[in-house]
Specification:
With about 550 residues, the protein is α+β, with helices and mostly antiparallel strands. It is built from 17 helices and nine strands. It is elongated. InterPro entries: GAF-like_dom_sf, HD/PDEase_dom, HD_domain, HD_GYP_dom, HDIG_dom.
Amino acid sequence: MKISEFILLDDNKKYLYLTVLFLMFFTSILILLFYFEKHNVENFTSLLKEKLAYESVLTLSKIFSTKDLTISFVKEKKTFFVSAEFDFEGRKVYVIKDLTFEVIVLSVLSLIFFLFLMGIITFKRKEIIKKVKIISEDLAKIEGNLKYFQNYLEYNPIVKKMKVEELESLKESVNYLQEIIVRNERELLDSIDEVVKTKKDLEDINTFLTSAYEILANVNPKDRIEDVAQYILEELIDIFKDVNAGSIILKQNNKFKYFAQVGYTDKLKEIEFCCENDVIAIQFEGYVSGDVIKNKNNEVFDEVFKEVGSEKIKSTYVIPIYVEQEKVGSICLDSFVNDKLKIPEYVNIFGKIFGNFLILKVYENSYKKMFFEILKMFVESVDKRVGKIHSRNVANLSKKLAKVFGVDEMKTWEAAMLHDIGKVFLSDRILKKPGRLTNAEKVQIQNHVKIGYEILNRFEFLKDISKIVLYHHERCDGKGIFGLKCEEIPLESRIILVVDAYFTMKNKGFDDFTIFDELYKDVENGKLDRKVVEELEKIVRRKKDE
């Protein structure tokens, strides 16, 4: 057996083992993707079925569909998909989510990573084989020279009268051969050491991938993101020596928040950052010394960090988490005993793996958007029933006023868009009645804010705008439905009330001069906020001048 074959024999087994392990790992990620998507489609189906029960007039042809999500009476078969079904008006309705794009992206990324890893291993193997081959050739030459010298001594007896110069020359040749043997032996030992080091690195990678696979296999897709993050952090800390604590920080609603911690108090989870520059775990990647952490801590959060115990950190290793090239968080592995944690860089792959779970959570936001579009469709159906484009006009103008007053523009737009969602249950007789309403009809009209609140408050992601909708008919003098005074009413609600009144008169054919005359009368009567009316007048006049 040749020397190169002897050295690389065990690596060939490791190469095969790494391939099998990677395939198992890829399969588990694929299974988790399908499991998550199946769970999300079932949730969406339940909510869709509940929403359809509110409006019997609405036919299934109006149901909102997207590129990836299909809702139909026929179960379309796709290459990769998950589906759910329910009964509606005596027929089966199928909700189908096409996963072809996600599977292709996951497969391509996994293949690129696998080929990259195999390329590194192959390059190392070729380098070692080349060195060993050169050393083997040198040793073969040395062996030939030694045999020749041995034959020379055996079959050519040294003449007693050999000159001293010839003996000296022979001695120099022997010494030269000895130097070559020592030098080549050292090179061979260095190559063997390099092979052993490469072998150890591969074993470490194998161990880490095995641990990652075991962690992912035990994750429950139905768990909250906080529970998943806590489990992953605890398991990850157990893998590395000298890691005593850690945390996972993620971006949610444009703020950074700690979702998991080990070694600190739960007060850490109460901290929220609005600016990336305040978050050390976002600014840095890899090894970070304890001194850097202490010097970089924002003065506002310095005392809080001391309370949770972060002053004990001597060093930390930050594993970044990216979602679609955006850094959305980090896994921090902290040491209270070691000034410089020695953690291999390949652990950063774990951040990419965990990022896949976050991508699935991001998909939840797309479903939230879908639910909002369905609700918006109900509101627009009310506008169509009365023959006016009202809600969208109120939303767009309210958004402009929100920018002027420095409140959340998108939240104001959403609240204004859905401010009349409660009217979906009113009959056409009341909505289209041209004359004066009876007292009973007025009560039904007033109740639309309560009904709208009850609809929106059912959704966790709409709870904040549900209160804006609830109070959008409150008067500044406290004589409204709930008796709130001007400053107690959310500013977004006051904005929507003024814009709603503006477009109501606009739809009746009044000109702007008459409209603002009436609006200022409502200000004097204690109904509207003067500041909002004044800013609205500026916007309308500016638009006319343009």
